[in-house]
Amino acid sequence: MPLDSNRAIDQAEYDALWDEADAGGGNVRYVDEIERRETIPKQLGQGETRIIELQPGLEIYIETIWHRRSLRLDYHMANERMLSSVYYLAGECRHINPSIRMESDRREKAGESCLGYFRDNRMIEYVPAEKTIQKLAIDITLQRLRSFGFEDEPVSALLKPLLHPNQAPESFHQSLNSVSPVAQQILQQILACPYRGSIKRMYLESKAIELLALQFHQLTETQKTAQSPLKMSHSDIESLERARDILQKKFADPPSLLTLAKQVELNDFKLKKGFRHLFGTTAFGYIRRCRMEQAQQLLKESELSVAAIAAQVGYASPSQFCYAFKRHVGMTPSQYRQ
User: Fold this and answer.
1) Domain ranges of the chain
2) Cα dist. 39→44, 96, 276 in Å?
3) Which CATH architecture has domain 234-337?
4) Biggest distance spanned by C-alpha atoms of the chain
5) Model pTM?
6) Whole-number Å distance between alpha carbons of 81 and 99
């Protein structure tokens, strides 16, 4: 299949290259009874993925890939009722999930980790060319996760819906930033596992569970730290709701945070912390959401030009508006209108 080196590989071309490679055979090999490796098509670049199936409901996925050209992939993630714990070991990429509430647009780079649960969600993925990307993921089913027994224990509010079979958890992505020295050591032990067969399974399963435990503890402690200093009275909540109403009315020309804090009689610290705590986003994030909602409505219901809409929702230039719109929605304003 001929390649155009001047443009990014989109989803259709990416799928076609993989279909050609699969038809030719030879890109999958089995290391032993629990691990298989899949080499990426040569037209895409170099590298492989490793899938290690430890026990029913628990597996390790390791990817080390270098792409000749950048990728812009757009696909749907099927609901497999699995929680993913991901560690980024090398490189950087960008992921967008337009339908999730938190961290819908994020850059993920070496030295970070995250927890994610996705149902049937759209994923837009940007991968740079000629940069090695390496990540290690641990996927665990909710059934397997619940077998550890968390019913009467204090866990993160983000994880609670995953632990009860009668609840329908929402999709989420939570970055955990720096990887601790202990986790770094475990990751290297997984990558350099010297064993085979049953001993390999036992060894890697223990390491995977240890990494999950470290992440769960980190998430719980992080949320405790974030929540403990903030005490909100009934009047504080009313002030924050007034701040939200002001931003909703004046999103095209919003006041500064200091001005807004004075208007609602809060200090700027409590305004910033309280706004995120109460509404799940920053004040600026709320302004952006209001702008994007209005822009989408105008693109659908009016014949205004993109430049006119940009000005109406508060952007100084059409290019700034187009960049922000594409980050938020996953397509340009013109594509959205079409």
Assistant:
1) 9-227, 234-337
2) 10, 26, 43
3) Orthogonal Bundle (1.10)
4) 68
5) 0.66
6) 17
**CATH tag, 9-227:** 2.60.120.10
CA distance 213 to 292: 38
Q: Are 230 and 240 in contact (CB under 8 A)?
A: no
Which tens digits make up the pLDDT trace of 71-118?
A: 999 998 876 689 999 999 999 999 999 888 778 889 898 888 999 998
Please check whether the two domains, 9-227 and 234-337, share a CATH topology. no
**Structural tokens at position 42:** 């040569």
309-317 contact pairs (CB < 8 A, 24+) = 309/333, 312/252, 313/251, 313/252, 314/251, 314/252, 314/253, 314/254, 314/287, 315/291
- DSSP 8-state class, residue 148: T
Look at the block and give the residue holding tokens 């490796």: 37
Tokens of 21: 């490679």
